[in-house]
Write a structure and sequence with these properties.
This protein has 443 residues and is of the alpha/beta class. It folds into three domains: 124 residues, Methylthiotransferase, N-terminal domain (Rossmann fold); 123 residues, Transcription Regulator spoIIAA, CATH 3.30.750; 66 residues, Nucleic acid-binding proteins (OB fold (Dihydrolipoamide Acetyltransferase, E2P)), CATH 2.40.50. Strands 2-1-3-4-5-6 form a six-stranded parallel beta sheet, with helices on both faces. A five-stranded mixed barrel has the order 17-18-19-21-20. The chain has a three-stranded parallel beta sheet with strand order 7-10-13, with helices on both faces. The longest helix is centred in the C-terminal third of the chain and has 24 residues. The termini are far apart. It binds S-adenosyl-L-homocysteine (SAH), iron/sulfur cluster (SF4) and FE3-S4 cluster.
C-alpha cells in the first residue's frame, strides 16, 4: 500500500485542485497518509501570487529535504502555480525534488509516477493547456458542509500586477452538464453548500451557457441548499447575474467584488478595465437589485506610482461602499508581469503605513455593518464547533458572516434562526430563536 500526502497553499482553486489530485492518486490505489513522515509521495501544491507565498515554499522545501535524507525512497513533488516560475531553480539547485508539475498536468500524474520509478530522474512538466478542465474526474473531498466545484480555469484579463495568467494559462470553461453532474453527486454524498470556483468565475462561457445560466441551473438542482461563487470580476457582473441571484433563494446574497484601487490613475495602470465611477455605479445596481447583499473586496496598496492622493481615493471609495470585509495586500512585484517593469516602485515602509491605515478603516466598517444586525433574526447554517467555546456552534449567514451561538438542541447542517445580540471583531453573536415546536416540547 502506497501513502500520499498533499500540502496546499494559495487560493480555493488550489484546494479544489488538491482534491482532484487526491482523487487521481486514490484511483491508482494510493491511500492518504496520516502525517507527512509516513508518506511515500509528498506533493506541495503551491501559490505564486506574492513573494511571501513563494518564500514559504522554499523554507518548506528545506524541511522536506531533511525528511528525504532519512527516507531516500520518498517521492517529493511541487505542483501548481510556482511550477513555471521555479523549474530552473529546482533543476539546478534542488536535486531532491522529483517532480515539478504545472496545474494542467495532473491527469498525467499516474503515468509520470511510473516513469519516475523506472528512470529515477526528476520530471518537469509545466505545459499549459488551452482545453484542460478535468471535467470527467471526480475530486476526493474532505467531509464537510461545502463542496468546492471548479467551473472554469485560467485568466485572460492580464491585470498588470498579476501572475495568474502566466501560471494558469488561458481562460476555459467546463461543460455545464459535467458541472451539474458533479454537484448532483456531491449532494448525494451529503454536501449542502456548493461554491463555484474560477479565477474569473463570472466570465464562464460554455456553448450558449453564460454564468447566469449556470447559476440558475445549479440553484435548481434538488438538495442544493446554498450556492456561493468566487471570484467574480466587476467587469463581468451584469443584470442577468443579479436577477438570477434575486430569483433563487439558495443563491447566497454575498458578492466578492475586488476593487484593487480606488484611483482612476492606478486602476488604469493596473488594466482593471473599470474606473471609480463605474465601480460605484455597479455597487448601486447590486444594492438596488439585491438589497441586503453583502459586499467584500480585495485591495492592493503601494502599486507602482501610487501617490498619497491615489491612496486617499481608495480610502474614499471604501468609505462610500463600506465593504463587509476586505482582503488587503501590499503590492508584491512578480517577475514577468508588466507592473514589475514600472520604474516607480513604492518603498516597503510606505506600503506598510498605507496597509495599516486600510486595515484600521476596514475593521471600523466591518463592525459598523455587523452592529446593524443586532436585534435582527438571521438564518444560520450550523457548520462547526466554535474554536473558543465547545458549548457553542459557529455557522454562516446567507451573507457569509460568521455567527457564534449556544448549541442547544441544534445539529450540524441544520438551519437555525438566530437572534443577533452583539458584534465583535469580524463575528456576530446570538441566541437561537425559540420556535413554536421547541416551546411546545419544553412545556
Ligand atoms: N481573480 C481574482 C483575483 C485572484 S488573486 C480577481 O481578479 O479578483 C487574489 C488577490 O490577490 C487579487 O484580487 C489581488 O488583490 C491580490 N494580488 C494579486 N497579485 C498581487 C500582487 N502582485 N501583489 C499583491 N497582491 C496581489
Ligand atoms: Fe489576476 Fe486580474 Fe486575472 Fe484576477 S482578473 S486572476 S487579478 S489577472
Ligand atoms: Fe496562488 Fe495560483 Fe491561486 S498563484 S492565489 S494558487 S491561482
Amino acid at each position: 500500500m502506497k501513502l500520499y500526502y498533499i500540502e496546499t497553499y494559495g487560493c480555493q482553486m488550489n484546494i479544489a485542485d488538491s482534491e482532484l489530485v487526491a482523487g487521481i492518486l486514490q484511483k491508482e490505489g494510493y491511500v492518504q497518509a496520516g502525517c507527512m513522515d509516513d508518506a511515500d509521495v509528498i506533493f506541495l501544491n503551491t501559490c505564486a501570487i506574492r513573494e511571501h507565498a513563494e518564500k514559504k515554499i522554499h523554507s518548506r522545501l528545506g524541511v522536506l529535504n531533511k525528511l528525504k535524507q532519512n527516507n531516500p525512497a520518498m517521492v517529493l513533488g511541487i505542483l501548481g502555480c510556482m511550477a513555471q516560475h521555479v523549474k530552473d531553480d529546482i533543476l539546478e539547485n534542488k536535486p531532491y525534488v522529483d517532480f515539478v508539475l504545472g496545474p494542467d498536468t495532473y491527469r498525467r500524474i499516474p503515468q509520470l509516477l511510473r516513469r519516475h520509478k523506472e528512470l529515477q530522474t526528476s520530471i518537469v512538466d509545466t505545459r499549459l493547456s488551452r482545453f484542460e478542465v478535468y471535467e470527467d474526474l471526480f475530486p476526493s473531498r474532505r467531509e464537510g458542509i461545502n463542496a468546492w466545484v471548479s467551473i472554469m480555469r485560467g485568466c485572460d484579463k492580464f491585470c498588470t500586477f498579476c501572475i495568474v495568467p502566466f501560471t494558469r494559462g488561458r481562460e476555459r470553461s467546463r461543460p455545464l452538464k459535467s458541472i451539474c453532474n458533479e454537484i448532483e453527486k456531491a449532494v448525494d454524498k451529503g454536501y449542502v453548500e456548493i461554491t463555484l470556483l474560477g479565477q474569473n468565475v463570472n466570465s464562464y462561457y460554455f456553448g450558449s451557457a453564460r454564468f447566469p445560466d449556470l447559476l440558475d441551473a445549479v440553484a435548481k438542482i434538488p438538495g442544493v441548499q446554498r450556492v456561493r461563487f468566487t471570484s467574480p470580476h466587476p467587469k463581468d457582473v451584469d443584470d442577468d447575474m443579479l436577477f438570477v441571484m434575486r430569483d433563487n433563494n439558495n443563491l447566497c446574497k454575498s458578492i466578492h467584488l475586488p476593487l484593487q484601487s480606488g484611483s482612476d490613475h492606478v486602476l488604469k495602470r493596473m488594466s482593471r478595465t473599470y474606473n471609480q465611477n463605474e465601480f460605484l455605479a455597479l455597487v448601486t445596481r447590486i444594492k438596488e437589485i439585491l438589497p441586503g447583499c453583502s459586499l467584500t473586496t480585495d485591495i492592493i496598496v503601494g502599486f507602482p506610482g501610487e501617490t498619497g492622493a491615489d491612496f486617499e481615493e481608495t480610502l474614499k471609495i471604501m468609505k462610500i461602499v463600506k465593504f463587509d470585509s476586505a482582503f488587503t495586500f501590499k503590492y508584491s512585484s512578480r517577475q514577468g508581469t508588466k507592473a514589475a517593469e514600472f520604474n516607480d516602485q513604492i518603498s516597503e515602509t510606505e506600503k506598510q503605513v498605507r496597509l495599516e491605515a486600510l486595515i484600521t478603516l476596514q475593521s471600523q466598517h466591518t463592525l459598523f455593518n455587523n452592529s446593524r444586525e443586532i436585534g435582527n433574526s438571521l438564518k444560520v447554517l450550523v457548520e462547526k464547533e466554535s474554536k473558543k467555546d465547545s458549548n457553542k456552534w459557529a455557522g454562516r449567514t446567507d451573507t457569509n458572516k460568521w455567527v457564534i451561538f449556544p448549541k442547544g438542541h441544534t445539529r450540524i447542517k441544520e438551519f437555525v434562526d438566530i437572534k443577533i445580540t452583539s458584534a465583535h471583531g469580524v463575528s456576530l453573536f446570538g441566541i437561537p430563536e425559540l420556535n413554536l415546536e421547541s416551546t411546545y416540547a419544553v412545556i
